[in-house]
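Figure 2 data, in text form.
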Amino acid sequence: MKFTAFLWESIGGIYKKILEHPFIQGFTDGSLPEEAFMFYAVQDALYLRDFARGLAILGAKAPEDRWLAMFAEHARDTIQVERALHESFFKDWKLTEEEVYATPPAPNTLLYTSYLLKVAYGRPFHEGMGAFLPCYWIYGEVGKELEKRGSPKELFRRWIQTYASEEFSAIVQQVLEVMDKVALELTESEKNIVRNHFITTSKMEYLFWDMGFNQQPWPV
């Protein structure tokens, strides 16, 4: 079994709960309130800004130059390509860039980005791979699943098509191949640490959908 298959097997229950969440269900049955999607999209823009910075750090720690180049490219694309998707939504909602990036991060946004940046800065490359992989992989799988189901709303179809696309799938595959190659040199103890990061940030993926659905406020 490839190491990445072992990782995915370890989050089967988490992924099932993600697909069952009313935020995800709402994409395909049309029940997701647009204001909840807007809240999520703004928070996702804040998240991706820090995610891109984390990728740049991950690239700097990469033991192979081609992986450095890959993560540097992914960091750039996160800023350029995914931000362009968000900005198309913001234009529909008449939200300016200044308004979006002046929005305070919700608790779950701050939790997730803080964890990613902590691991990227403070831990070795293989641990960073474990922490960053769920954002790639879960979005790719969710995108493909939602594409099969379809959506009655053009707004949601635009989002789904981005993550169900062959281009995004190829990016996910690149990262999976790196993780499997890195794992060949790891001890069982190191693999378990990677797995723990992977499970933790997979849980945070669930929390991020939940944050959007509930438009999570700060309780104080």
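Caption note: The longest helix spans residues 65-93.
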